[in-house]
From TrEMBL:
<feature type="binding site">
    <location>
        <position position="189"/>
    </location>
    <ligand>
        <name>Mg(2+) 2</name>
    </ligand>
</feature>
<keyword id="KW-0460">Magnesium</keyword>
<feature type="binding site">
    <location>
        <position position="229"/>
    </location>
    <ligand>
        <name>Mg(2+) 2</name>
    </ligand>
</feature>
<dbReference type="InterPro" id="IPR008927">
    <property type="entry name" value="6-PGluconate_DH-like_C_sf"/>
</dbReference>
<feature type="binding site">
    <location>
        <position position="193"/>
    </location>
    <ligand>
        <name>Mg(2+) 1</name>
    </ligand>
</feature>
<feature type="domain" description="KARI C-terminal knotted">
    <location>
        <begin position="181"/>
        <end position="326"/>
    </location>
</feature>
<dbReference type="InterPro" id="IPR036291">
    <property type="entry name" value="NAD(P)-bd_dom_sf"/>
</dbReference>
<comment type="function">
    <text>Involved in the biosynthesis of branched-chain amino acids (BCAA). Catalyzes an alkyl-migration followed by a ketol-acid reduction of (S)-2-acetolactate (S2AL) to yield (R)-2,3-dihydroxy-isovalerate. In the isomerase reaction, S2AL is rearranged via a Mg-dependent methyl migration to produce 3-hydroxy-3-methyl-2-ketobutyrate (HMKB). In the reductase reaction, this 2-ketoacid undergoes a metal-dependent reduction by NADPH to yield (R)-2,3-dihydroxy-isovalerate.</text>
</comment>
<dbReference type="GO" id="GO:0004455">
    <property type="term" value="F:ketol-acid reductoisomerase activity"/>
</dbReference>
<dbReference type="GO" id="GO:0009097">
    <property type="term" value="P:isoleucine biosynthetic process"/>
</dbReference>
<feature type="binding site">
    <location>
        <position position="250"/>
    </location>
    <ligand>
        <name>substrate</name>
    </ligand>
</feature>
<dbReference type="Pfam" id="PF07991">
    <property type="entry name" value="KARI_N"/>
</dbReference>
<dbReference type="InterPro" id="IPR000506">
    <property type="entry name" value="KARI_C"/>
</dbReference>
<dbReference type="InterPro" id="IPR013116">
    <property type="entry name" value="KARI_N"/>
</dbReference>
<keyword id="KW-0028">Amino-acid biosynthesis</keyword>
<feature type="binding site">
    <location>
        <position position="189"/>
    </location>
    <ligand>
        <name>Mg(2+) 1</name>
    </ligand>
</feature>
<feature type="binding site">
    <location>
        <position position="225"/>
    </location>
    <ligand>
        <name>Mg(2+) 2</name>
    </ligand>
</feature>
Length: 330
C-alpha cells in the first residue's frame, strides 16, 4: 500500500493559488477551516440567499454566490451532497477556469455519471476517512485523519501533485494519504454504509434490544447490554484491533463471541452482503439515490419517523437521567 505523509509532499501546487469550496456542510466547513489555517486563499460558494453566508463570515472566511466561486480558482472542491451534484455542477461549470482542477471527497457523482466534468479539467479525489467534526478537531490538535486520494483525469500532468498538496493542506497527510481510485473509494464506502457500520450494525443492535425485551427482560437492561456497550467495543477496536479487543475481554465474553458471531453472521448473511456489494457496483444504489432525491426523500422521511418512534428511544430518554454528563429534565 502506497502511503504518503507530510514530509514527502510539495505544497507548491496550491501555494499562492485560490481554492473554491462548494458547500459548507460537515466536510465543507471542516476542510475550509483547515485550509485557511494552512494559509490557503479560499472562497466558499453558497446559493444566493443562503442563511450560511453569516456562518461563513463568522468563521472568518469569504462567502460568494455559488456561480461565481470558481472564478480565479486553481481548484474547485465539490463538497455538497451527492444527489445535488448534477444541478450544482451545471451552475458552476461556466465559471471553472480552463485547465483548473475539480475535486471531490466522495467518488459517487463522478464514478456513476451524476456529472460529466469538462474535458480540460483535472479531476481529483481527496476523501478523509471520517466526519468533518473529527477532521477539524484532529487538525487543531496537531494531528491528522487518514484520507484516500485518486486521480480520474490528469489533463495538466500535475493532478497527483494537486491532490497531495490538498491532502496536506487539510491536515490528512499528517496521518497519511493512501492511493485509491474513484471506483474503489465509492464502492467500498457505499458498501460499508449499507452492509456494515450504518446499516448492519444499528439493525443488529435494535434486533438484540427487541429480542431481550420480547423475552421479558427490562428495557433498561436490554439497552445497556445491546446498545450502550457498542462504544466500549469501538474504543477497544480502535485502540487494539479486533484481535487485541478479544484479549482485553473476559473469557466468558470471548467464548460467547466465538460461538455467537459465526451463528449470526452465517452464510446467508454473507450472501446478502455480496448482493449489496453487487448492487452498489452495478449502479443500482446510485440510481435509487437520485430517484429518492427527485421524489423528495419519501423513504428517508418515513424511516426517520419510525426510528424516532422506536421503543429504544423512550428507554434512552429514561437512561439519560443517569448520565453525569446530561442534566436531568426533572
Amino acid at each position: 500500500m502506497d502511503i504518503i505523509r507530510d514530509d514527502a509532499i510539495d505544497p507548491a501546487p496550491l501555494a499562492g493559488k485560490r481554492v473554491a469550496i462548494i458547500g459548507y456542510g460537515n466536510q465543507g466547513r471542516a476542510q475550509a477551516l483547515n485550509l485557511a489555517d494552512s494559509g490557503i486563499d479560499l472562497v466558499i460558494g453558497l446559493r444566493e440567499g443562503s442563511d450560511t453566508f453569516d456562518k461563513v463570515r463568522a468563521d472568518g472566511l469569504t462567502p460568494v454566490n455559488i456561480e461565481d466561486a470558481p472564478k480565479g480558482a486553481a481548484l474547485t472542491m465539490m463538497l455538497v451532497p451527492d444527489e445535488q451534484m448534477t444541478g450544482i455542477y451545471g451552475v458552476i461549470e461556466p465559471a471553472l477556469e480552463h485547465g483548473s482542477a475539480l475535486g471531490f471527497s466522495h467518488g459517487l457523482a463522478e464514478h456513476f455519471g451524476y456529472i460529466d466534468p469538462r474535458e480540460d479539467l483535472d479531476v481529483i479525489l481527496v476523501a478523509p476517512k471520517g466526519p468533518g467534526t473529527a477532521l477539524r478537531q484532529l487538525y487543531t490538535e496537531g494531528k491528522g485523519m487518514p484520507a484516500l486520494w485518486a486521480v480520474s483525469t490528469d489533463k495538466s500532468g500535475k493532478a497527483k501533485q494537486i491532490a497531495l498538496a490538498y491532502g496536506k493542506a487539510i491536515g490528512c497527510a499528517r496521518a497519511g494519504l493512501i492511493a485509491s481510485s474513484f471506483e474503489e473509494e465509492c464502492v467500498a464506502d457505499l458498501f460499508n454504509e449499507q452492509a456494515v457500520v450504518w446499516g448492519g450494525v444499528p439493525a443488529l443492535l435494535l434486533a438484540g434490544y427487541e429480542t431481550l425485551v420480547e423475552a421479558g427482560y427490562s428495557e433498561e437492561v436490554a439497552y445497556f447490554e445491546c446498545i450502550t456497550e457498542l462504544k466500549l467495543l469501538a474504543d477497544l477496536i480502535e485502540a487494539r484491533g479486533i484481535a487485541g479487543m478479544r484479549e482485553a475481554i473476559s473469557n466468558t465474553a470471548e467464548l460467547g463471541a466465538v460461538l455467537g458471531g459465526p451463528a449470526i453472521v452465517d452464510f446467508p448473511v454473507r450472501k446478502r452482503m455480496r448482493e449489496i456489494l453487487k448492487s452498489v457496483q452495478q449502479g443500482e444504489f446510485a440510481a435509487q439515490l437520485a430517484e429518492e432525491a427527485a421524489e423528495g426523500y419519501p423513504l428517508l422521511k418515513k424511516m426517520r419517523a419510525e426510528a424516532g418512534d422506536h421503543a429504544s428511544e423512550v428507554t434512552l430518554a429514561k437512561l439519560a437521567r443517569l448520565s453525569p454528563n446530561k442534566p436531568s429534565s426533572d
